[in-house]
Amino acid sequence: MRVRLGVLVLAVALASMAVFSQGCASIWAGGPAKVQITSEPSGAAFSVYNKRHDLVASGTTPEQVRLKKGAGYFSPQKYTVEFTKPGYRSYTIPTENGICGWYWGNFFIGGILGFFIIDPLTGAMWTIDDVYGTLEAAPHSQATESPMEIMTIDQVPAELRSRLVRIN
After folding, report:
1. What is this structure's pTM?
2. Taking phi first (over 0 means left), then psi (-120 to 50 degrees means alpha), and beta for anything else, what does residue 53 get?
3. Domain range holding 48?
4. Is residue 148 included in any domain, yes or no?
């Protein structure tokens, strides 16, 4: 009876290892990355483009978007984020990718399938860092879409004075 119980416990332990070590990152950190997009100043419009320059997400900062982590076998998906806001220069920044810590669990636990096949194919082995953009104020002439200048009548060129309209 004791031998059967020991064999059963061993079988359950081995089965659990087989299941959980075959794709550690896929199991614990799989699916799209949740990436926080923020800017200074906040309220900037943003657009996220993949490496083919297809628009994959857009919104207004601060906002969280879900982005696909992998672009193929052992290849991370690369994105660029473009920020725009009236009165500020547009700003573009690439995303930063890294390797998920759970991916290394395959190596240490012996999940050969997870290390060489499952996590690299699903993209679960990758992470994408949050994105923060700092926008610079544009010079006054570039900050507005239709700049308006105030001047005295003697500063207006003579050829334009006939087009002036008196405002009371």
Report:
1. 0.60
2. left
3. 2-143
4. no
